[in-house]
Amino acid sequence: MLKEKYKDEIDSILSRYPVKRSALIPLLYLAQRDEGFVSEAAMKEIAGLLRLTPPQVYETATFYTMLNLKRVGKFHLQVCKSLMCALAGSDTVIGWVKTKLGIGPGETTADGLFTLSAVECLAACGTAPMMQVNEDYYERLTEERFDRVLADLKRDGTCQLKTGPFMWPLPAPPAR
Amino acid sequence: MATTTTETVRLTIDGIPISVPKGTLVIEAARRVGVMVPHFCYHPKLKPDANCRMCLVEVEKMPKLQTSCSTLATEGMAVRTATTVVHDAHKSVLEFILANHPLDCPVCDQGGKCDLQDFSHEYTATSRFIETKRIFQKEYFSPLIETQMNRCVQCLRCVRYCDEVMDVKALAPVGRGTMTEIKSFGAHPLDCEFCGGCVQICPVGAITSRLSMYEYRPWMLKRADTVCTFCGDGCQITVQTKDQELIEVNSAQGAGRNSGDLCARGFFGFHAASHPSRVTHPLIRRNGVLVEATWEEALEFVAEQTNRLKLAHGPHAFGGLITGRCTNEELYLFQKFMRLTIGTNNLDSSARYGHVNGVQAMRMVQGTHRWTVTFEDIVQADVLLLVGTNITEANPITGLKVKEAVKKHGATLLTIEAIQAAVGTISNISNLSEQHFCVAPSQFGAAVLGLLKAVVESNYVDSAISQRASDYVLAVSQAVQQLTWNDLALDTGISRESFVQMAAALTGGRRVVALAGQTLLRSQGSYGICLNLLDLLLLTGKLTAQGCGFAPLAEENNDQGAVEMGAVAALLPGALDLTDQDARTQIARVWKEDLPLAAGATLIEMIDRAQAGIIKGLFVIGENPVGSLPPQIGAKEALGKLDLLVCQELFLTETAELAHVVLPAASAMEKAGTFTNTEGHVQAVRPAIDPVGDSRPDWEILSAISVFMGAPLEYSEAKEILKEIRAVIPGYGSLGPSPIPPAVDRVAVDRYVNEGYRQDLTTRYTLPARAMRPEGTVQLGLVQSLFHSGKLSTHSKGLLQIEPSGFLQMNPVDAARFGLETGDRVRLSNGRGEFTTTAKVFDRVPEGLAWFPDHFAQAALRLFDCAVDPDTKVPYCRTASVSVMKTT
Amino acid sequence: MLGSGGVTVMEEGTDMVWAALRLMEFFYHESCGKCSPCREGSSWLVQTMRRIVAKRGQMEDLETLVHLCKNIEGRTVCAFGDASVAPIMSTLKHWRPEYVALIQAAEAANLIKLEPAAARH
Amino acid sequence: MTLKTWIKTITLYDLLVGMKTTMSHMLHYKPITLQYPHEKRTLPDNYRGMLALLRYEDGTEKCVGCDLCEAACPSRVIRVVSAEVPGEPTKRYSKEYYMDMTRCLFCGLCVDACPVDALGMTREFEWSVYDKRQLHLNKEQLLAIGDRSFPVREKQLELQHPNVAFFNVAFKHLPQKPG
Hints:
The complex is a heterotetramer. Chain A is of the alpha+beta class.
């Protein structure tokens, strides 16, 4: 259960908001981080924590596409398909996924590693085409870079090429 | 009364000038001048949401079209609803709404009464939509409420109703954009209060009742406005029938005391009348078995036996019991029959099970037998004190008034209740309360005493009363000084600070209403607790103030009527004392005969007298003492000894099975008359169907028996009896749409503060015995379920779908202690017997208590003991200490 | 003003109908579903645009598109509805020939003429 | 009144104009009497004869029990008792269907009213009986008439298009949205 596992974090989230209900989305994120998706049990638990009814939690969870209600692969590739990325070739990126991993949007590879979603604008139009893997951005994708991302993810679970997400202006580079 | 603003604004709608109170919405103002602006999402009960965009109107000096459902009327506003621009806007919005609508009117139950259908006709909307419509896959089917989201127009009325009015929040719009659908939770069927509000409020056929699905078309139905029989709230329902078949119940917005809101019992419980096991022919016991007979045979038998017994043993060898589900006319005729034709005061009604406590307390202190407040006062109250009401389940519509007061008007809700705050599928009043004391029913008295002590010690006593009745105030003060905070804390688990805080909230209110419910009225010592509550109001000066009062809630629909009609042993029609000479003369003048003077026996006394062989004949109308009292009382044996037991019944109950004659009675769906609801509002009952089989209304049966006995009480219709009631109680039942409650009788209050309080003050102001709870036991309580009412509703197929049987409901902590989980079999036992049932873990049950619904408690009854109130003779048999054991 | 991408610079040869569809799909996805014109309108517009891009459009569709856009505009709760019709309104205004060309291609391919309630299987 | 109209009036000119067709038939037409039981007239396609209930290609009843024929009927011929198909939630059908043909005036309004074309008018007209009660037809009899008069049947609605599938499909059988 979330409550035992993340007691401190839940308390700090709850203390952030004057109205309890406002903590709903952060808690749903927490649940998603825990399991990779928001399960029914988690939604019921969050309802109990916030003194909402389960349908009220469910309504929020289904509204936001960033919250997965079904199990997804270990790496959730979210390729932006909005106009700017599409102009820069996001359809090609989806094509690469299809040829290299054999999955279309909404599908998961047989080994359960990758799930592809075609999503709407991720607010990185300047560096299109881009994709988001779990919570990291990979921008200015070329086939070579894309291959490297996939290989690194498979091998290390992370990749050096990740670039964000950043708020504008860019944060100062970490001091060495 | 409601404080209405007198400030008005003037505006014109389509050139028609009108002045409306400030704050009125344009759509409402338009309705007043007879302009109907089409709408889906607007509903007078709900806050404006303006999501359907159907009600666009043109307002002068505003650049864009405005939604009339969310625009407030302002001074000098000029609204136009009939221009081409507006018409085009309506038409285009309708085209959007219809785009994804399946247009399956022919198979939709709403067809014929559908807003979307009507507007489509009005605007002859044609669609240019040639794409494939969106289709929601159906995942599940709810037991009683059918959702067909393809038809949904996403007006969210159901969601808002569920939240704003019912406070259940069981529905939510799920998904986004055009794929929004109304769902409960995930792929689970709807699990909620089943109030049917969403069905009623849905403007299209997206949410329909499954109970009568596809069986009718609106134009085939005949309607009858009548009153629901499932609790004391007296909701007006419209029963719709098709060829003598009960099809549907609904309630029109604004109609009756409930203003269109219903609970599961009212909305889905109507099938009780058409249950196949109804008794449809008179039955006479011949050679030990009940066999069918004709009405003539049965009536002749009853009359002959009655006359024989009366001749042999005198009139006091008879007794009579009647249920509070009968109409006022029947209750009146019953007591007239018993008092006049038979000649005894041995008569009682189901008000004796608890409602009498509240009424007698009111008569004692404030001199009225009715509330001095109305539902409107509850809505307008700023402090509400609920003691042992479990209001959302026992009296759901009064509960709605409380919810409205809290949610819409910001009233302070104080509750003393054996319930824990918990989010659940059924609304829980303690979730809304500002301050909640969770105490066991046996300690309600202690909690009230704690409040009194806090009032006295914090000097919250009203100065007027201390001046007027210093002796009384002194006596009460001294009495509460005897109690220690320590004892109170031990009994109730509530600290002095909490008591003081609640007392402060109570005293600070301007309009204070105290409600007492069944949990209180049927628990031991409740007459005294009611008096203490009245003391509390009196001391804080809230008894006589405007909009303040004490309101005991009736369990059965006409318990209040039973008291007012004199269908209890000690009271005459008008709830006057049997010994009141003026009343006796007045009644004797109408009846043209004298009334018996000897004090009558009450329910338990009658059973005892039958046991002792003093009572030889008993008339039982719809009452079931064998089934509803614990076997310890020996009702079965006592009734077995009778020479004549006549039952007028709908079903062959445990009592009817012992009867010598069973006469088939008509249910409330089949007869005319009036019901008096818990607040004393008299409403008309109208027949929706003809009596089933050979059954007859109870008053007709009584009248016929009296004719056969040679002392006719003849009436040709129920209205004639009402006329006679009005002769006895002037003006009865002609209260009009909004009743004016009686005022507190100053003389009676004076009598009470000078004299009346003395007789039992010391007994009332002692703490109840502390509940001993040995290890391995729980306090088992019989409770009222939201989905049932008495035993009658267990014949209703709709309600049985929601709650088919009883469960032992237990707190999770207790359940863990006994190693129980939902669905486990559990054996309850104590010195009196044992009983096996299924457990259900339920987090609203307080620790140490366990609940079992009264409606299925037949086998559980033997665990209970029965104590009889010394003053009001009410049998208390709702709690018992039992040990719990898991079995297989 | 072309949607929420702020200012977008596109290549000379970009298919503007396709671009409008992409923008419209964004708006369709983002429409919250509260008020009817935006909820139903955006889905309708997207479906029609998809059909036109897939060369299954017909001349009446252009008129319908304009009508729908005008019906959404100014009748919604928030400004999202107003914004959501901008891509189609402006592309139809400035690049109408591209639409017409696509539809003419559809007609040339002699695809089955669509009838209401008898759309593609 | 002019002379011309006066002459027209006394020579009954208008009447003659009206009777022109009749007069010409008297002169030119052959007798059209048919030796009825032995020879029968070919009836036009839109002949409004006996009513019948129809089925789909796969033999399922078309009728969805919507009661609209009952509502449309001016002489109260039809009585429909509709219900949910047992075991198929949300699918509506007519549990019972009665027609009292003694009252029918063959106006065809019921056929027009039917949203799923479940009613048809056959070209049967030889329905004279000795006992009126034989003209009280139930669902089986009406379906039998349909079976013998309409050998060619339509496809199921949901196979025609998902947009009209709501009428006669229980939800578990709803076709998936294409594309």
